[in-house]
Structures
1.
Amino acid sequence: MNTFHSTRSNDETLTSRQAIRRGLAADGGLYIDDKLGAAAIDVAPLVGASYQRIATTVLAALLPDFNAEELRQCVEEAYGTQWSDPAITPLRPLGDDYVVELFNGPTSAFKDVALQILPRLMARTAQTPAERAEKIMILTATSGDTGKAALAGFADVPGTGITVFYPEGKVSDVQRLQMATQTGGNVNVCAVKGNFDDAQSAVKRIFADEELVRSLSQEHQVTLSSANSINIGRLAPQVVYYFSAYAQLVERGAIHVGDGVEFCVPTGNFGDVLAGYYAKMLGLPVKHLIVASDRNNVLFDFLTTGTYNRERPFYQTTSPSMDILVSSNLERMLYYMADKDTRLIQMLMNDLTHWGAYEIPEPLLGKIRRLFGCGWADENQVRDAIRSCWREHRYVIDPHTACGYFVMQQMPRDPGTPRVLLSTASPYKFPRVVGEALGIDDTNSGDCADDSTVSPTVASTNDFAFMDALAEVTGTAAPASLRGLEHATPRFATTVDIERMPDVVRQAAAAL
Ligand SMILES: *Cc1c(COP(=O)(O)O)cnc(C)c1O
């Protein structure tokens, strides 16, 4: 069962439970499983099966030391009525292509797929009596989406707690209210004076503060952990939607079991698309994976040149969850593509740390490029994509999904191979950007509805006014959990200086 180890060394082996509990390896590497794909998943029996059954099957292959009953329980709790669609990740036609919606969870973004189940898996990782006495406190700095999805996932999960820091004034109204109204006896939300990087750096310092970590453990039996996407417990649940999408394609008669499919994936940290590669290694007939980036196109440059260079300007875009310069999960793909060569990975990551860049050997790049395509969209292209997707398909997409839509339109079609776009957020999470792209603003009447009708103008420029206008123009409905925020009462209203963050953590630990 000890088949997990770091991408950078073989020194220590762990079970999947231990890998989830630890998150990141001590040498800075990511946990990977050498047995991955040793036994392929038989796709045929999954056709027509519920999302929950597919999830139990896929997770059993990825997390081998969890037993079937535990996985069934976790899946049942994570993918229940908190999802607005019984298919969880429904597949819909989009012209000649398809879109799989990953945003029907409680916070309306794709991170729910993983963060609804990770806390349940985490709660079952305690094996020794000492571990069972311990409470895990998740510590996260967020620029918006991850914080809320993590709060919703960990709220009231026994044996866990969560503290989220966000930069004051740097998240949208909707995002701030989503977090500040979070219910649960084990959650804590705090604004900090500074930007996201300041908050993120302070969280890293807290993790590295041995004295603080020791006192939390001794005085409160609390150990700190993180919920970010390098945790294998976040990656594994994402593999499920690839199998589900494929099964739905077969069910619709679009393909037969065994036919190849292409997925186009908006990604920043390489987590969303890496899950597709895992699906392929588990036997799913994935023909191509298209990596779609926003203006922070470091992955595009890497996949076209073989050089990963993080020394570049950082752009704040309308797709903030993809604004990333270091794509952590890329390391896992490189490990498997490089035939599990830990020494090569260690060398490359060393170069990244010391020089800000690394270069992979030409044959390795060639091998990667046979599976992974790539493209990116600038801000104008994102807006145009939102508009043209609505015009042509009467389907509203958010700015992250729009990067994928634009890139998919650019790619030459592989005849006979269906293409599936992964849709990662509800357009109602970004009502202003989407509304403006569709021509709804406070000066002119929108041009996105039938040209004969006059669309509303937005009198006020707040996010909720844009939500209402978007609903009216497109005939869709805002998720109640987002629309209802306007009149919800915030529970958390504290703002602290960066230096005070450790005190907030101490108090939260004492209260757990
Ligand atoms: C996090 C996120 C992504 C990118 O996910 P990766 O893990 O970086 O691949 C894309 N879209 C939305 C809306 C997200 O929240």
2.
Amino acid sequence: MRDDDPRLPSSPGFWRSPLRGPWFTSVLGVVLLVGVTVLFVTGLVSYAAYNPDLARVNDQTPDKGILGFYLFAWPTDPYWLYRLTQGLHVTLGITLIPVLLAKLWSVVPRLFALPPACSLAHALERISLLLLVGGGLFEFTTGVLNVQLDYVFPGSFYPLHFYGAWVFFAAFVAHAALKLPTAVRSLRRRREEHGAHGERVSRAPEPGELVSPRPLPPTVSRRGALWFVGGASLLLLVTTAGQSIGGVLRRTALLAPHGGADPGGGPNGFQINKTAAYAGIDAAETGEEAWRLVVTGRTGTVRLSRAQLLRMPLHSSALPIACVEGWSTQDQWWRGVRLRDLAALVGYDDPPDLFVESLQRRGAFRRAALRANQVADPRSLLALYVNGEELSPDHGHPARIIVPAAPGVLNTKWVARLTFGAL
Ligand SMILES: Nc1nc2c(c(=O)[nH]1)N[C@H]1C(S)=C(S)[C@@H](COP(=O)(O)O)O[C@H]1N2
Ligand SMILES: [Mo]
């Protein structure tokens, strides 16, 4: 068998699409260069929003070590910050899927090229490509599975997606640095082939290894193929973005997950993540008789009934819920007791960090840690009402946390216990 036997994928003659070529690959590459960079940055930023460095409960990524070098105290302003960063992260990630697939398709002959390596430098380059392609597929797959299938890797999604992101992005930077000059050259060359009004001036065949030596007759132009990829991305965009915008546009989010719990209408009629039934919340524990909020701090522990909480000063704030999965609600009017007033009750004029525990006995999100700046914000509440009505069981009755700009997962529902300063 010879190396150039066109029946073998290792032979350039095996690959016959007339679309493959440096221009096609470069256009897709430049789109990904911008897109993946935005994904990486919004991903890191959204990770910081979890307070992963605050306590083991929020995040179990072990030994993130120097990879956590950039972590910072997530602000509470603007109050829609996480809604923006995570909406962008998820929506852009989904929108880029066709571009990623087209890019991989456009270079697939390279994957089979033999010999596997002709020099050490070449071997290193091919290993970096393995990390690039593997890392890219891994990040996109885990991201989509997490959004669509509701945490298939319970608890372990964060470390997987986080470590994967660093591997992928490191390989991505190396690849971009190596290939950008070639990409720019082939894009420029293509432009020079077109006159001032876009008419074709010359049609020299494109050089480069990606071009098939024995192409089949074209059924679509390269430009047409790009329109097709762009159209697929656009379709994903318009069927996804609605979940982050919320309100009536949520209905356009055909690809949004969680058709499951229908929030119904009325004041509590907005997106529900986990229902009370799912979380195993027993109505007997949440009733006026049984439920007590246990607040612990410097001066000891106090137990408050709902009636006692209602005698404290009540405040309102308009805040959204924005989930890591990319969906958000529009602003809802929450009413309840300020977290900093509860901190003052147990001896803190200057609120410290806060550890929140729910009535829920199992499940990843039954507890969360909030940072002092989040507790101190006057809009941060232990909410008892939403939009003028008592919280529904599914939205966390009798009381839930709501904090500006925080990821939904920190807005603990069915709160049972608040521990200030214990972190
Ligand atoms: N106790 C408890 N609180 C919880 C959760 C949970 O599963 N259990 N889910 C969190 C997540 S991931 C989100 S996005 C929000 C969703 O709030 P909602 O269902 O009222 O929209 O609640 C948060 N609070
Ligand atoms: Mo969430």
